Amino acid sequence: MMAKSSSTRHRERKKSSPSTYFKESKFDNSSKTLNADLSPTLGKTSQNLRNQWLWRCFIFTLLLLTGIISLYFDNNYKFFPHTWSSIMAGLSGTPKRDAEVPCSVMDNSTVDHRSNLTLAEFIRCYDAKRPVVITDILKNWKAMNWTKSFLVRNYGDKRVSMKATEGPLNKAQGFAVPLKNFAEHVHEGQPELWTYLEDELFIEMNPELREDLGQPVYLREDFFQLLPKEIRPWNAMLLWGTAHSRSSLHIDPYNWTGTNAVLRGKKMWKLFPPGQDHLLYVRKNQRCGFPLDCLKYNSPIDAFNPDYKQYPKFRRAQAISFTQQAGDLLIIPTGWFHQAYNPLETMAISSQVMNSQNYKLVLEEIYKAGEIDARKLPRNFENLSAQKQVEAVVKIIPKDVIEKGRRVTEDILDQLKWKGKTKQRNK
């Protein structure tokens, strides 16, 4: 038989047990004896290490497969609603679709139009972050049935606050007229000859109309309701404009989260993401004139008919443009300049909230007005919950500020000549 080659011997040496390596080593006799004694132990150790390595590989493979399967099922949620991640979310008591699905917002050039939007997703993806149009929330509002004849028949003699212009937007002037007089010409709007009813107290002074407005779940948390009535911002502003009427370009008072519910007609919008104030020529040192004073951030620019010669920086401003239809609710987050344009006769209701997502920004605006001294807040203020922080601010409002707020409201009502209680309305 031929002698084995060196390469064959080398492969056989690799197959031998660990004790073989020790036996072939050039140690002295005592080392050989010690190594021989350790051989069984080392063999067991090697086997344990091999088992641990195999077990880790198994665990890694299992986790990898679980992740792949979960991702696949998540991307096909409507076919596989009970994925691993949804089961885990269910065990934690949080619905999967509200807790873990990433925000499916569109690009920054448009505003999402959503239906079946859960409160959890609204808070996570939109509240105080991005504007959103909700398309299925107003259909059950009784106010969707308001008509010109209904309002004139029941409230025609009530005076309302409106503005009118003959020429550019910055020439608009304010008036107080009986509602029936405004309604008589509401169909006559022209590009530079239009009127716009913007009344913050009309619904306030006719509370039966408020009953026709729903309370969307997205707006139920409202810390403004913690303020004394004398200085609480009026909620539910009636907006009724002729064709071509429009608002100013502005940020809402107190930098609150604003809403706009279109009942009839439609609105065209231009919304400007935050960080562009320097391009909008914002007027300085303006006051809102509310019972609790605040700063006002208005631009002289008509974004729907800009004068680039007078405002050249405005060319660089980036706006999101879209149309809101009747039955849509628009929610505008804090910090967004916006302007609305009514291409045809349009009726809407605007409102606002201060909630756990925006309250710090709202309080900051209240402090800026100088009527409330934040230095009087308790030392543990930052450790309090959102609602408790607002309650702490309410406690330090001076009595003279509350009294001044009452006088402001009375003065406005006197200008509008509201008298007595509203008679029972006719359907």
Automatic annotation (TrEMBL):
Keywords: Membrane, Transmembrane, Transmembrane helix. One of its GO terms (cellular component) is nucleus. It comes from the Eukaryota. Residues 204-370 form the JmjC domain. One of its GO terms (molecular function) is cis-regulatory region sequence-specific DNA binding. Residues 1-25 are annotated as: Disordered. SUPFAM superfamilies: Clavaminate synthase-like. Residues 7-16 have a biased composition (Basic residues). Gene3D superfamilies: Cupin. The keyword Membrane applies. PROSITE patterns: JMJC (PS51184). The chain crosses the membrane at residues 53-73. PANTHER family: ARGININE DEMETHYLASE AND LYSYL-HYDROXYLASE JMJD, JMJC DOMAIN-CONTAINING PROTEIN 8. This is JmjC domain-containing protein. It comes from Pocillopora meandrina. The lineage of its organism: Eukaryota, Metazoa, Cnidaria, Anthozoa, Hexacorallia.
